[in-house]
Amino acid sequence: MHLIIILGLIAKLALVSGDCEGGNGVSNFDYNKFTGTWSVVYHEADDGEDKLDCAYLSAYRLRNGSRIVSLYYYHDSIKGSVERIAIVPHIDNTGFDLDVLDPSIWNGRVQFAAVDYKRFYVAKFNATELRSVRVYVGYRDRHPDEATLNDAKKALSDNGIDFDTLKSWNSSRCDHFNYKPNRSLEL
Ligand SMILES: *[C@@H]1O[C@H](CO)[C@@H](O)[C@H](O)[C@H]1NC(C)=O
Ligand SMILES: *[C@@H]1O[C@H](CO)[C@@H](O)[C@H](O)[C@H]1NC(C)=O
Ligand SMILES: *[C@@H]1O[C@H](CO)[C@@H](O)[C@H](O)[C@H]1NC(C)=O
Ligand SMILES: *[C@@H]1O[C@H](CO)[C@@H](O)[C@H](O)[C@H]1NC(C)=O
């Protein structure tokens, strides 16, 4: 009888610690699987970022092997799109650094809380210049299906982030915003 209770407790503890693993972030990040285009749909509310919309992130490699991340978004102050190109000088098991060619608020470190290479990621961006850490959620598809949205929300809550505090860069203008990453630069 006691044994059954103890076994039950062990099983429960195993389950709890298993559930917590998502909260420790990604520990085997793979840049090659991450390459391609992502729609960055959710971000934390911020006066500067609220002026942006329809954000994309495109990760690729140049023919000479250098890794590049392009950030592309609509900016309300110019009523048009902006592209920022960053070199990725360092990668490890948890994410990568961004070194934007123009000195920029986008310099810093991207650390993944969760990544499903075919569907979504949850990233924390430690911005060097702004000295702040902000959360972003990207999807392969700007209009993710219900299951993908729910799985991303679960990944957020596993990492102690409240989905309801995030804002969307997905206004109706994004449906007409045509982003075509420069494929000739890719391998
Ligand atoms: C690859 O080419 C880019 C663009 O010309 C350059 O900035 C970068 O330093 C090069 N990387 C290497 C490893 O030579
Ligand atoms: C953000 O990066 C700086 C170094 O650039 C580091 O000192 C700081 O601890 C980092 N913050 C977090 C929360 O990771
Ligand atoms: C983005 O907006 C479209 C409508 O413009 C909507 O159908 C879609 O669900 C939205 N996606 C997200 C992730 O909010
Ligand atoms: C794509 O990149 C190549 C090489 O840098 C450049 O010559 C070409 O003009 C670019 N095309 C577009 C549409 O930006």
Provide structural commentary.
The protein is an alpha+beta fold. The chain has a single domain, classed as Calycin beta-barrel core domain (Lipocalin, Beta Barrel), CATH 2.40.128. Helix content is 19%, strand content 39%. It has three helices and ten strands, in the order ααβββββββββαβ. It has helices spanning 2-20, 31-34, 146-158, and strands spanning 36-44, 52-61, 67-75, 80-87, 91-92, 95-100, 108-116, 120-127, 132-139, 166-168. It has an eight-stranded antiparallel β-barrel with strand order 1-2-3-4-6-7-8-9. A hairpin with a 4-residue loop joins β8 and β9. It is globular. The protein starts with a helix and ends in a 19-residue tail after the last strand. The model is unreliable at 3-22 (pLDDT under 50). The structure holds 2-acetamido-2-deoxy-beta-D-glucopyranose (4 copies). Residues 1-18 form the signal peptide. This is Lipocalin/cytosolic fatty-acid binding domain-containing protein. Keywords: Signal.
Secondary structure layout plus pairing:
Blueprint: H1 2-20, H2 31-34, E1 36-44, E2 52-61, E3 67-75, E4 80-87, E5 91-92, E6 95-100, E7 108-116, E8 120-127, E9 132-139, H3 146-158, E10 166-168
Antiparallel strand pairs: 1-2, 1-9, 1-10, 2-3, 3-4, 4-6, 5-6, 6-7, 7-8, 8-9
Main features:
187 residues, alpha+beta, Lipocalin, eight-stranded antiparallel beta barrel, 3 helices, 10 strands, disordered N terminus, binds 2-acetamido-2-deoxy-beta-D-glucopyranose, Lipocalin/cytosolic fatty-acid binding domain-containing protein, Calycin, signal
